[in-house]
Design brief:
With about 300 residues, the protein is mostly helical. The chain has 14 helices and two strands. Strand 1 and strand 2 form a beta hairpin.
């Protein structure tokens, strides 16, 4: 466990340092409320699951982590923009996030929207700068493919598409069964942005274990969302740092509403086992196996 904690800290410190540099480099050119809102949203907490996945997978595949970290930063910026926008009154309407007021509650709705927009555009700027900066270290075509994968996972055929169906399930194919609809939402809204940082690492390595890692990211994405649904039902504000019990109150389609609490827990166990099986196939040296266990057993 000591070895795991040491590696985890190394990845996290490296990521936080790169993130701060990328955000401050732009937002502190001129201090204003928008800069404050962007900083508040992205530098104030978060589990950093996606960046850790990116760095750990890169490390496992022999990719230079100092190159991978720029992609980890881009993924986290996109992820954070999605949380900021998801909290808006027109979406999930949440007053709290990461244990504090959500960005629009702190800075007002317009700045909440703009902080999200700012993070999304900064994410593009960041990855494009990284491609040119690292041209000597990594084949630019590979670097472009990695960046494109992130935006595909985040866009209309990924997270944004999943969010649209989550907000309006009636817009999905007529007569879809609840579990089909749920799978579509989880696959797109959640799993694609878990897959993205893992696929980036594979692409940067020259596509090592690409298919296996794609499958791993999908299974882990489902595990992540199902544990989220269970926590929404069973946890509390002090643990989660956001309002709980909202899914039930808002009549949301979730793994708990479709399969029941015990059914959701069984499903989480199945996805966890599938993830572990894939990690054996790709010869994980232990870090990812321990990391996914923390996701399976997470309390926040
Ligand atoms: C607004 C385009 C758009 C999309 C929103 C991310 C999202 C899509 C909605 C947030 C609500 C939700 C339950 C999303 C599923 C993915 C998920 C569990 C996100 C929370 O990720 P964590 O737990 O958050 O990694 P932290 O704060 O730790 O980074």
């Amino acid at each position: 466990m000591e070895k795991y904690n040491g590696k985890y800290k190394t990845y996290l410190d490296m990521f936080e340092c790169a993130l701060k540099k990328a955000v401050n480099g732009v937002t502190h050119r001129k201090s204003n409320l928008l800069s404050d809102a962007v900083n508040y949203a992205v530098l104030g907490g978060g589990k950093r699951v996606r960046p850790i996945l990116c760095l750990a997978t890169a490390d496992l595949l022999g990719v230079d982590v100092s190159v991978a970290v720029d992609y980890a930063v881009t993924v986290e910026m996109i992820h954070t923009y999605s949380l900021v926008h998801d909290d808006l009154p027109s979406m999930d309407n949440d007053d709290y996030r990461r244990g504090k007021l959500s960005t629009h509650k702190k800075y007002g709705e317009a700045l909440g929207i703009l902080a999200g927009d700012g993070l999304l555009t900064l994410a593009s700027e960041n990855v494009l700068s990284a491609i040119s900066r690292n041209a000597g270290k990594i084949d630019p075509l590979r670097a472009v493919k990695a960046a494109k994968t992130i935006f595909e996972c985040a866009g209309v055929n990924g997270m944004v598409g999943g969010q649209a169906v989550d907000l309006n399930p009636g817009s999905y194919t007529e007569n879809a069964l609840p579990n089909e609809l749920l799978n579509y939402i989880i696959e797109n809204k959640t799993a694609k942005m878990i897959q993205a940082p893992i696929l980036v690492a594979s692409i940067l390595s020259g596509d090592k274990y690409y298919d296996e890692l794609k499958d791993f990211g999908r299974n882990l994405g489902f595990l992540f969302q199902i544990t989220d649904d269970i926590l929404d039902e069973e946890s509390n504000f002090a643990e989660l740092g956001k309002t709980c019990g909202k899914d039930k109150k808002d009549n949301k389609l979730t793994s708990v509403s479709v399969y029941g609490l015990n059914g959701a827990k069984e499903l989480a166990t199945e996805y966890y086992k599938s993830c572990k099986d894939i990690l054996i196939k790709i010869d994980d040296k232990g870090f990812l196996t321990d990391f996914i266990e923390t996701i399976y057993k997470r309390k926040h």
